[in-house]
Design goal:
Number of strands: 4
Radius of gyration: 12 Å
Largest sheet: 4 strands, mixed
Domain Creatinase N-terminal: 12-68
InterPro entries: Creatin/AminoP/Spt16_N, Creatinase_N
Protein name: Creatinase N-terminal domain-containing protein
Order of helices and strands: HEHEEHE
Oligomer: single chain
Strand content: 15-25%
Helix content: 40-55%
Number of helices: 3
Shape: globular
Amino acid sequence: MDSIYLSKFKAFHLAINKHGFQNIIILGVNNIRYLCGFYSNPAYLIVTVSGNYLTTEYRYNEQATYESHQGKIMYRV
């Protein structure tokens, strides 16, 4: 993960933990792009204590692999 996205996720994790959340789903193209770099619809980002998951349609495989600075990418059928 690129350092800019890593620092964004660290700050985001601190903020959600401060408010007592353990898991959160991020919706919206601009919000997802800000946190992980992926810019396309339909997608959502699942942020958990154990990891972060970008979920999108399988047809965005190449784009998600190239743009996302996420550790795990899941595809919907």
